[in-house]
Design brief:
By secondary structure, the chain is mainly beta. Helices cover about 10% and strands about 35% of the residues. The protein has two domains: about 55 residues, no CATH class; about 140 residues, no CATH class. The chain is built from one helix and 14 strands.
């Protein structure tokens, strides 16, 4: 019986092709690593995202080293220094009115009551409301220049009433506003458990409202000293003979 030996030696052409492919892969991978890690100055390591801290170039290894990420209290992947609503997770950073206060920190009305005056003597109209909004941890309201409250409804109501400098004072953690002639009151109170959540209420009487009204109703509270507008809308409203009552359930 004749024995046969299989030739297991690869062809020279196959070896050349394999070597070329290997060299190409190594060259490509090496270029990518160099692009990512190689550096000679700190500026070459900056990724343009301030929340990632300051990236530096290690002159011993000539490689970039990551910075220390800045704090992100609400865990929305936007550091506190750049977050437009610290304390409330809002990864989209949506700011519909462009006032640098994120929508997540805008105002939430929980009750709005509009009463129109009747045909009897005197102005019996009034606007009342309450709700809450969120401020950055450590921030405080500045009542020095007063506040404005603006109400708008679906069918044309647009009324603003407010408080002038000197009509609002800070008492402990609360801010209280009172018109010198009476008929205007407002209060702002941080929650004890979460001080960055501020409850508010307001009442204005004899405001010349004649109606009719219809929801939804938009409320804008303006802090004059900072220029911050906090805006919210309440939609669950009931029309009555006396006016309009809106509640958030």
């Amino acid at each position: 019986m004749t024995s046969q030996t299989l030739d297991r030696t690869p062809s020279r052409t196959l070896v050349r092709h394999f070597a070329a492919a290997l060299l190409f892969a190594c060259a490509t991978a090496g270029a990518g690593v160099a692009d990512v890690l190689a550096c000679s100055t700190d500026a070459e390591c900056a990724d343009g995202n301030g929340c990632n801290g300051v990236e530096t170039c290690n002159t011993s290894t000539m490689m970039c080293e990551p910075g220390v990420p800045l704090p992100d209290a609400d865990g929305d992947a936007v550091c506190d220094a750049a977050d437009n609503c610290v304390g409330v997770a809002n990864p989209s950073q949506q700011d519909s009115d462009g006032d640098s206060v994120g929508d997540a920190c805008e105002l939430t009305p929980t009750r709005i009551n509009l009463r129109r005056t009747n045909r009897g003597p005197g102005d019996k109209s009034a606007m009342h409301g309450q709700g809450f909004f969120v401020i950055k941890p450590g921030d405080v309201l500045d009542p020095g220049e007063g506040f404005d409250f603006r109400l708008q409804d679906r069918i044309g109501l647009d009324i603003t009433r407010g408080f002038e400098p000197g009509e609002c004072t800070v008492v402990g953690t609360k801010t209280k506003c009172k018109g010198v002639e009476g008929g205007r009151l407002a209060r702002f109170k941080p929650l004890a458990s979460t001080p960055n959540v501020v409850q508010f209420s307001f009442a204005f009487r004899r405001v010349g409202l004649e109606g009719a009204f219809d929801g939804p109703v938009s409320l804008t509270v303006t802090e004059r000293a900072s220029g911050a507008d906090r805006i919210g809308t309440i939609s669950d409203c009931l029309v009555s003979l006396l006016g309009l009552l809106c509640r958030q359930f």
